[in-house]
Amino acid sequence: MIGDDDPSDCASPTVIIHTDGGCIGNPGPGGWAAILQYGNARKELTGRASQTTNNRMELRAAIEGLEALTRPCRVILYTDSQYLRDGITKWVYGWKRKGWQTTAKRPVKNRDLWQLLLAAIERHRPAGGVTWEWTKGHAGQELNELADTLANQAARSATAADPADLDESDNPSTLALG
Known about the structure:
It is built from 4 helices and 5 strands; from the N terminus they run E-E-E-H-E-H-H-E-H. It has helices at 54-67, 82-97, 111-124, 142-157, and strands spanning 14-23, 28-38, 41-52, 74-79, 130-134. Strand 1 (14-23) and strand 2 (28-38) form a beta hairpin. Helix 1 runs parallel beside helix 3. The longest helix has 16 residues, at 82-97. It is globular.
């Protein structure tokens, strides 16, 4: 713990979170990172999966960063993933309204994680909610670069003993044999 300035236990209006996720192959071993900032304090979180996709790791980074906060906070979340930012700011409420179907009438990929992300966001609504900011990846933004490095380190350290994190439609064990 960082002490009274621990970003996971915010009491002030704003926590800043920088996230990134990635994998080696798609699907393949993956990792995610979330860097929480509160004043001068900083906390780094990472995780990994033996088999996953880049999009799932991007979602997982945001979920884990928001869930690490022990009470509702106003959050500004930075991501270099347009999938994550556009999904949560433009698409998710339409998917939900349509019974988790895309405009092409197909099941939404990563529905389980979108639902977890919505729940994590809802927890922070009383304190001002979550603002989503896109940042260009690999453009020299210090904390985005650090999140990328941490996510890549996590992906490279993933082993077969780590759990898989796949959408049901991406998991070969759930596909019907024809």
